[in-house]
Amino acid sequence: MAKRLIPLLNRVLVEKITPPSKTTAGILLPEKTSKLNSGKVVAVGPGYHDREGKLVPVSVKEGETVLLPEYGGTEVKLGEKEYHLYRDEDILGTLHD
């Protein structure tokens, strides 16, 4: 469903990662530890044009895991899933294993 939405300019469509609320052993985790500001990039826009008219591409790619700000972004609901739209400069960084 998210493939139908292609972000414009330098916007990035992100699906937030929801961490598990309990461990594999069945121990419930506190709500504070279950809040994680990361997400997976679902779609990216083409970028924006600078003052000279050159295209500046988006710095992240589809499939990357990114660190998100605590507040911001635009919530988008497509089907039953919730996504968030962020500007490229609002994304704090990429996460690697």
UniProtKB/TrEMBL annotation:
Keywords: Chaperone
Keyword Metal-binding (UniProt): no
CDD domains attached to this UniProt entry: cpn10
Signal peptide: none
Record SUPFAM superfamilies: GroES-like
Gene3D superfamilies named in the record: GroES chaperonin
Superkingdom of this protein's organism: Eukaryota
UniProt xrefs under InterPro entries: Chaperonin_GroES (IPR020818), Chaperonin_GroES_sf (IPR037124), GroES-like_sf (IPR011032)
UniProt record similarity statement: Belongs to the GroES chaperonin family.
Protein name stated in the entry: 10 kDa chaperonin
Species, as recorded: Rehmannia glutinosa (Chinese foxglove)
Lineage, highest ranks first: Eukaryota, Viridiplantae, Streptophyta, Embryophyta, Tracheophyta
